[in-house]
Design goal:
This protein is an alpha/beta fold. The chain folds into 3 domains: 124 residues, Elongation Factor Tu (Ef-tu), domain 3, CATH 2.40.30.20; 283 residues, P-loop containing nucleotide triphosphate hydrolases (Rossmann fold), CATH 3.40.50; 93 residues, no CATH class. The chain has 16 helices and 21 strands. It has a 12-stranded mixed β-sheet. Strand 8 and strand 9 form a beta hairpin. Helix 6 crosses helix 7 and helix 11 packs parallel to helix 12. The N and C termini lie far apart (63 Å). Bound molecules: adenosine-5'-diphosphate and magnesium ion (MG). Magnesium ion binds next to helix 4.
Length: 581
């Protein structure tokens, strides 16, 4: 049975003009106009029998009556004569009474456009429930995934198409405390239940690494801190070392080279020469015959950083035979600053996960182990990758973009070099993305390179089954190139006008009016728009079972308590050790 059986008397008005997906409805009776509100759903009778076009009211204007003074400010509606009561409606899809064997099917496309004078009906009362039930029928979604319920009808579960959500990348934004992390948790807990899920969540503040964020199918990894250094079996204990030899030449230089130094070109040249020679030496030592002919300076081949340091230090002090006496070598004194920087970096305990690696991590096969740990399961269940939360909270913020970029790049390149039939799709969830996928990098070369990895994934990831979900409280500070590749938006409350404007620009023209609700959304309520959702509308996000450690501190409540748990001694000791454990 068709869900809509409108009677002519229920019509609120008729189509006055049509412009692609925007329709102007003329409303005769002021009484009817009064009952309508912006963002309400309406149905317009289609020229084809058994079809209704569904739209969202975008603007309501009342005609200026003769008795009243003419409207002075025209609300930006210049050119419009206020001679009619007018509704502006954005069409969002078509409801078919019958589609093949199925009844009541809602489709996102507009097969037909409404005819002039076609009748328009409000979708309210029980029609809302009927319509929302149709929308939330499982059959509309190949792989149902839900984040919550529709705000307009709290009985109706809002499903998302799990394929489309990840195929075309997603964005989750909202001011701090609006409910992003809970929304991520809600997604994660469903992903983790899939038997062959494969997803990595970059956890910047350790929010998802707490004791409550645990379930089957969810694993926790963390980047090594100073107290993990020098230990063996770190990887087996879910502690990640990310050795310097995985970095490209550019990435190493970004960290080591001071480009304002007049000797920078010499330093870069000699560094590249020695690194390449050391990589070749390593391959000789292990008797390699496969890689030697094809490696480049960027190839992930282990080499000993100590040897580089020694060699460069020697060149810096080198004396050569002169005509009469010894004279200074060609690079004498030109490498001093570079050697100092390199030495400082290699000894910096905070960067120990990069530089202070053990023999385990100097093995050529260690890269396989690392990638297996990142992209496959555990030894007990190797095929089930599941969801991995990687805790980056102890990584110094200045190298964070470089380090996360490295992990993302590893995943992407491994996927790229996997034959298509064997590519198992993987999603990267990037919390606090403005920190490492920034719009402006302020000339910071290392951050720039980290960003490049994400730009590539945003642009090409889809082809290789790598998906990005960008999560941020400051969309205005997140890289536009990356954001513009995202086709799904879960926008929670956004109070900053600049951030709202960014989201508005990213939405299709006919839906950008929806962003008006961004500042007035409730906590945990989101505007969900995109390929993955049938209806662009507000959704009240369900409370997740597993909860992130809330970053929302209750000042007044804590101050009203009898005691305080502040422990300075542990904090100071942690500060010295650069580790929370
Ligand atoms: N869907 C929701 N339903 C109810 N309360 C929520 C919801 N989402 C968030 N909250 C509340 O808001 C707080 C902050 O949410 P959180 O996800 O940490 O925000 P954000 O990550 O955006 O800063 C949570 O601790 C919780 O109390
Ligand atoms: Mg958060």
């Amino acid at each position: 049975m068709a869900i809509f059986n409108f009677d002519d008397s229920q019509a609120i008005g008729t189509v006055f003009s049509v412009d692609t997906a925007t329709v102007i409805i003329k409303v005769q009776e002021l009484e009817k106009l009064r009952k309508l509100h912006v963002n309400q759903l309406v149905a317009i009778r289609s020229a084809k029998a058994g079809q209704h076009l569904i739209g969202l009211i975008n603007r309501i204007t009342r005609k200026a009556s003769d008795e009243e003074n003419p409207v002075e400010s025209d609300l930006g509606l210049s050119g419009f004569l206020f001679t009619e009561n007018i509704l502006k409606v954005n069409l969002i899809g078509t409801l078919l009474d019958r589609h093949g064997l199925k009844e009541n099917v809602f489709k996102r496309n507009l097969d037909t456009v409404p005819e002039i004078e076609a009748q328009c009906f409000p979708i309210d009362g029980e029609n809302i429930t009927k319509f929302m039930t149709t929308i939330s029928s499982h059959e509309n979604y190949k792989v149902p995934l839900t984040v919550g319920k529709y705000s307009i009808d709290e009985q109706a579960q809002a499903f998302l198409d799990g394929d489309k959500l990840f195929q075309r990348h997603a964005v989750i934004v909202g001011s701090t405390g609006s409910g992003k992390s809970w929304c991520v948790a809600k997604l994660i807990e469903q992903i983790a239940q899939l038997p062959m899920a494969n997803c990595i969540l970059f956890d910047i503040h350790g929010e998802y690494s707490g004791k409550d964020f645990k379930m089957d199918g969810l694993q926790h990894l963390r980047v090594a801190n100073p107290s993990d250094l020098g230990k063996t079996g770190n990887l087996e204990n879910d502690v990640l070392m990310l050795p310097y030899w995985l970095l490209t030449y550019e990435e190493m230089l970004a960290m080591l080279l001071d480009r304002s130094d007049s000797n920078a070109p010499n330093q870069a040249m000699l560094f590249s020469k020695t690194v390449f020679a050391e990589k070749m030496k390593y391959l000789d030592e292990i008797g390699d015959t496969t890689f030697k002919s094809s490696i480049t300076i960027d190839s992930p081949i282990p080499y000993k950083i100590d040897n580089i340091l020694k060699e460069l230090a020697e060149l810096d002090l080198q004396m050569v035979e002169g005509a009469r006496t010894e004279k200074q070598g060609p690079f004498f004194g030109k490498l001093t600053r570079f050697v100092q920087r390199l030495e400082a970096k290699t000894q910096d305990k905070r960067l120990g996960f990069l530089f202070q690696i053990s023999d385990d991590e100097l093995d050529i096969n260690w890269l396989n182990k690392l990638c297996e740990r990142l992209m496959l399961g555990t030894s007990s269940n190797p095929k089930k990758a599941g969801v991995k939360v990687i805790d980056f909270s102890e990584v110094p913020s200045d190298v964070l973009p470089l380090v996360i970029g490295l992990v993302a790049r590893l995943v992407f390149t491994v996927q790229q070099w996997t034959v298509r039939e064997n590519q198992h799709p993987i999603a990267l969830l990037c919390d606090e993305a403005h920190l490492y996928i920034p719009e402006r990098t302020n000339q910071d070369a290392a951050a720039e390179l980290g960003l490049k990895s994400f730009e590539r994934i945003a642009k090409e990831g889809r082809k290789y089954g790598v998906s990005l979900t960008v999560i941020s409280q400051r969309p205005a500070e997140v890289n536009r190139t990356v954001l513009s590749q995202c086709n799904n938006f879960i926008a929670l409350r956004l109070s900053n006008a600049e951030d709202q404007a960014v989201i508005k620009r990213l939405l299709p023209d006919n839906l950008s009016g929806l962003t008006d609700v961004l500042p007035i959304l409730d906590i945990g309520e989101a505007l969900v728009v995109g390929d993955a959702s049938l209806l662009p509308t507000r959704i009240i996000i369900d409370e997740p079972i597993i909860k992130p450690e809330s970053a929302t501190v209750k000042f007044w409540k804590e101050w009203s308590a009898d005691t305080s748990k502040q422990d300075i001694a542990t904090a100071v000791s942690g500060l010295r050790k650069q580790s929370k454990s």
